[in-house]
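Let's practice the habit of predicting before peeking. Look at the sequence and jot down your guess about where helices and strands might fall. Then scroll down.
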Amino acid sequence: MPSEDQPKYERAYQVIVQRLKSGRYPVGGRMPTESELAAHFDVSRVTIRRALDMLVQDGYVESKQGSGYRVLTLSPASDTCLTSFTDAMLRAGHDPSSRFMALDHFEAGADALAHLPPEMQGVEVSRIVRLRLVDGKPSMLVMTYAPRSLLKDARPEDFPERGPGQSILRILSDRFQLDWSAACEDISPILADDAMAETFEIEKGQPLLKQACSAFDDAGRIVFHEDVYRAGSVSFNLSQTARTPRHV
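Done guessing? Here is the structure:
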């Protein structure tokens, strides 16, 4: 929570972030103008501009001359490869949704874990399986693995199927308090087998992309791993500037 001891611009920044995460300013939508925010917080435009500059630096919003500020995401990627699919689709004007398919638990060393990083093969693991859709059409099959000790009391109800709250990054962070600061990713082509063809409503043997991504905390411990199967293409934006997350 904001403190009275903080500078006014930092207090405004933290309040705006809280409003973003509560859905008050939706992804893809416009922020109130500098004048409106300055009047609301009872501060100067210089002060509110500094708070907005922090939001831009942290990746929450973008600024375009003559257009004001637009909300980009509720889960900035920091310096990892992990970005919110939900926010990207909302920002592009699409309707993302999720279809919960399974919540499985595996004993240490189970055959289903053999392809995971070694650190996850020696512990009990939970797996969440969801189908991601865009405008009602299957787009990604996502299998999220995490040590069972980190997903205590996980239930299907923890994984909503519509709205900004369906983002797995926000679910892991907000519901289960998982933190990560680094990630590695591998991308490879595969051909759809019978099950994948049925899931994506395509012909067997059509090409798919598989993304395997592992996320790690500051101590180098693995936090979760995802296998993502995509029916479409993947694009990347590389930046030399890494963002340092602020605690709100």
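How did you do? The mean pLDDT is 88.
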